[in-house]
Write a structure and sequence with these properties.
The chain has 294 residues and is of the alpha/beta class. Helices cover 32% and strands 28% of the residues. It folds into two domains: 208 residues, Rossmann fold, CATH 3.40.50; 70 residues, no CATH class. Strand 12 and strand 13 form a beta hairpin. The radius of gyration is 20 Å and the shape is globular. It starts with a strand and ends with a strand. 34% of the residues are buried. The mean pLDDT is 89.
Length: 294
């Protein structure tokens, strides 16, 4: 496996290894939630323009009813991040058709409703290049189609705050609670991917190390709730094993006896400001240095 840390170099490698065939050429892009898979998939697609298609595996999530059912049966500890939430067999069936130059009607997952659309579909035609964008795109059912396989590696710190900003500030996602995003990511999202990461690293052709944080400000609206009265202010920095804070980031926690309020800044702009629970406050102390600044 080759390790690449520069996006332009990654593009050069793909261009050098791409071979036009009578059937589509598949590039599988895997990585944990918030690692930058979708952004990188779009960047790759931009090289080939109309001759490429991004195939999003997120559209194959089964929906809220399915999640509720497996939680009811106590067979799932990860909720939405359980691998069974993704209909990998349908993904595989659709890719087989595309590989054989057939078109497919891909479902569309509505994130605000947490269900697939009943009446809308993406009609995907075979193309010179198909980029499979998905956490589990290197799972055997999907990875078998890959001509080139990429795993995007990124620090836990970067992934956590990319997801927080995306889910809270991008109106296409509709999340409301920073507290839930942090606790869910650290308790469920992170361990769920760790179960498969070693296997995916074994089969990947390229490890792309992604340290860039590029928020899509066309869709981002800061989410700032009312400040609380506080007696202490802490500046947060990740432990070395968690990652490295970007020079453009600042994270502050305003604390009083009964209330905690977290502010996340990027490029000097406050993007997120919300109260967090005592549980979340204590959880973050397992991942971040809390430096008292007032």
């Amino acid at each position: 496996m080759e390790t690449i840390k520069n996006l332009n170099l990654l593009k050069e490698r793909l261009l050098a290894n791409y071979k036009k065939k009578n059937t589509p050429f598949f590039v599988n892009v895997s990585g944990a939630s918030g690692s930058g898979k979708t952004t990188i998939s779009k960047d790759i697609s931009n090289i080939f323009k109309d001759n490429s298609t991004v195939f999003s595996m997120d559209n194959y999530m089964r929906g809220q009813k399915f999640v509720d059912e497996i939680l009811k049966k106590n067979t799932c500890s990860y909720g939405w991040d359980d691998i069974r939430v993704f209909d990998l067999q349908m993904v595989s069936d659709h890719l087989y058709k595309i590989q054989n130059n057939e078109s497919v009607s891909q479902p569309i997952f509505d994130r605000k409703r947490s269900e697939r659309s009943e009446h809308e579909f993406n009609f995907i035609n075979p193309n010179d290049l198909i980029i499979i964008d998905g956490i589990h795109s290197l799972h055997p059912l999907v990875g078998k189609f890959a001509d080139i396989s990429i795993i995007v590696e990124c620090s836990l710190h970067d992934r956590l705050w990319r997801r927080a900003v995306r889910n809270l500030c991008d109106n296409r996602y509709g999340a409301k609670s920073l507290d839930k995003i942090i606790t869910n990511y650290l308790f469920k999202v992170e361990p769920s991917f760790k179960e498969y990461e070693a296997d995916y690293l074994k089969v990947a052709d390229i490890s792309f190390v992604n340290h860039e944080i590029n928020f899509d400000f066309k869709h981002i609206r800061p989410q700032i709730s009312e400040y609380i009265c506080y007696s202490e202010i802490f500046s947060l920095s990740p432990f070395p094993e968690v990652g490295e804070k970007n020079v453009l980031e600042n994270i502050r926690v305003f604390s009083s006896l009964n209330n905690k309020y977290l502010l996340y800044y990027f490029k000097g702009i406050p993007l997120i400001g919300q109260q967090i629970s005592q549980v979340c406050f204590e959880l973050l102390q397992n991942y971040y240095f809390f430096k008292k600044i007032q």
